[in-house]
Amino acid sequence: MTDFADVQGNILRGYRMPRVRYLILEVADRFAARRWLAASTNGNGYGVPQITPGHWGANKPDTCFNIGLTYEGLRALGTPDASLEMFPNEFIEGMNARALKLGDVGRSAPETWPAPFDEPKRIHLIVSIYATEISQLDDVQQRALGDGTAWRLLGTREGCSFEDDIVHFGYRDNIMQPRFDGVHDPLRHADGQPMAPLGTVLLGHKTNLEGLMWRVPEPKVLGHNGTFNAFRVLRQDVVGFEKYLDQAASYLLTHKQVDEVMPPGDEVRICKVLSITPASRHAALRELVAANLCGRWRDGTPLALSADMPDPDVDQAKFDYDHNSRCPYGAHIRRCNPRGGQIVQRVANNSRRLVRRGVPYGPRLSGTQPGDGSGAEPERGLLGNFIGASLGAQFEAMSCDWLNLGLQDPRITGSNDPITGTNDPDTSWFDLPLKSGDTIRLRSLPEFVSTRGGAYTFLPSLSAIRYLGSL
Amino acid sequence: MPIQSDERPIDRWVDGLPKTSFFEFVAARILVPFWAWWTPVKPLPGGPHPSFQRGDNVQCMMNLVMPLKDKSPVGRTLAALAIAQNKDAIYAGLNNVGTVHFARFVIVNDNICMFSVYDGDFTNYIRDFIATIGSVFNAVVGLVEDGEKVIPCEQNVEAFIQWVHERDLYQVPDTATDFLRDQEALNGDEAVSPVNDDLTLLPRKLILQLRANANVSLGNGYRAYPGFSAAQVRERLGLGW
């Protein structure tokens, strides 16, 4: 039986707090940093903030506090070499070194990342603070940094949720996360997917690949119940996205099969459900393109259940991709998680799932219409955490072979994810499926999402944090 | 910006040596070992060069050369039997992994070699194979030097993948400048940029690399047609995928 009070809370549950601040820290003094780690789990309500565990009893805390250590951070703390060598290669090398696998090229290349991500070896600890008010974030930050003897602050990143779980690009998010054996009630919130074994997200437990176990760094107290996180700062070109929807809708309006894409009259109902005024065929086609690129209408309706128009009454989590599914093979959510649908790598269905914790940063674009382009747009994006017990088998495998090569289906091989992929307008394409089985190929998708920083971190159990504190 | 040169006086001296059989004999037995001692070279890592170009990420080559423990006809026979006994499992693995064009097993002297052409990322390819036919890997790798450290592969996934990667042959690039870049990349954080592209140093660097890395692949395979994935080929031929 897993002791969830020993697992960091952000792994198995979403805190549902609107504000998040990340502190990116470097060890200032190894011995002070160890004392800080020990203090973060000692149960005292003052001084160093306490790590939020997976089980907090009856009272939800007002703020939550979690940490992730990089490989360089573990080294800086003096973790024994024998333990360090047992961590997986991708974690040891770090996110920057894995740029080609992750599609971090061109303007996403690590060489272009701003501080503090331009000096990856100095990043040792990433602290996550979750709260409702900025004043709470400030208070916890002050307590975390203390007098500065343990850690040196290299930088911060801060995000804030929008109302109704909407994120940049206008989609509803936070619809579902993997549900784990022994953690979630299989009868509640059923999503049509098999329950994920706990080894999907925690080291030392059974994984989704039958008989396979990921290596647990020793001593056992260090690795067991820990996991890995790909922390990513992802800039989103919201204006560019809306402009592309305009272009694509205009193109479809002139296409001879436009009535098959959207039967006349449907635009009124689509605009009504999505509260778009004034209703027009062009406006509805924009939404249809947005829905196909993602695999969900912007209100969260999966195309697998309702491809012709959004439907507020469907269960947004429970669906699958059968042979008759009209969700495009290349749609973002289908690429990330093909569920039970046919894929080339049959053994990989359900094996690359990740826990995703993301929060938008930057101001929300008002409305859906792009600006006139005269002023510089503020930076917007997502502060994302992609959590899994194997970065290589889950996050990197998904990023490399599925998002950016399309290897899982021969009909999309050679194309990138339409929303998050490293697209070049000269070569990019996306096939919009029609009821007849034909497709209309949309071209010239630009890169809507680019990477502005990140790091691979290890999220140790509370026992492991105590162990590191006692080195 | 002037390019740093690592040419030394001894390079110029060697350039001036006569190209007679005698000097070639002396160079192979005295000069090269001395130079390898004086400027040690690490073996370059195996497998395809990391790339983001789509065409480079399908039909990738794996050239695995594994020295047998038992270097006798009996050892070679055991290796041959291990493959023959697992033929059905190998076909099942090819079907379930879905990204492999073909796989060949060859015995060359005291090595069992596995040559394959696969799509996508190397670690995903090996991991998926472990998940489907790990027992075949265990049967073969159990006959190979140092293989016992990484079997059963299902319990040593990361170590097994690394072990295979270390035995995958370095793919010597087709262009001299790419080779020089690979060589410089071995210096990690101390690598200089721009890389010294002095081609007069190429023979020395290549000789030292081939001394450290006796088995290599020349190029990364030459295709007669652009890269397609195994599933694309199957789909176009109506074979199902």
Observed structural traits:
heterodimer, A: 471 residues, alpha+beta, 4-stranded antiparallel sheet, 10 strands, 25% helix, B: 241 residues, Alpha-Beta Plaits, 3-stranded antiparallel sheet, two-stranded parallel ribbon, 9 helices, 5 strands, 45% helix, 13% strand, globular
How would you sum up this structure in a few lines?
The complex is a heterodimer of chains A (about 475) and B (about 240). With about 475 residues, chain A is an alpha+beta fold. Chain A has 15 helices and ten strands.
Can you walk through the features of this model?
The complex is a heterodimer of chains A (471) and B (241). Chain A is an alpha+beta fold. Chain A contains 15 helices and ten strands. A four-stranded antiparallel β-sheet of chain A has the order 2-3-1-4. A four-stranded antiparallel β-sheet of chain A has the order 6-7-5-10. In chain A, a hairpin with a 5-residue loop joins β8 and β9 (439-443). Chain A starts with 8 loop residues before the first helix and ends with a helix. With 241 residues, chain B is of the alpha+beta class. Chain B has a domain at 54-169: Alpha-Beta Plaits, CATH 3.30.70.100. Chain B has nine helices and five strands. In chain B, the strands form two sheets. In chain B, strands 1-3-2 form a three-stranded antiparallel β-sheet. In chain B, strands 4-5 form a two-stranded parallel ribbon. In chain B, α4 (87-97) packs antiparallel against α5 (122-141), α5 crosses α6 and α7 crosses α8. The longest helix of chain B is centred in the middle third of the chain and has 20 residues, at 122-141. Chain A binds chain B through residues 88-89, 100-101, 103, 105, 209-215, 343-348, 351, 392-393, 396-397, 400-401, 404-405, 407, 409-411, 413-414, 422, and chain B through 50-52, 54, 57-58, 95-99, 119-121, 123-124, 127-128, 130-132, 134, 154-159, 162, 228-232, 234-236, 241.
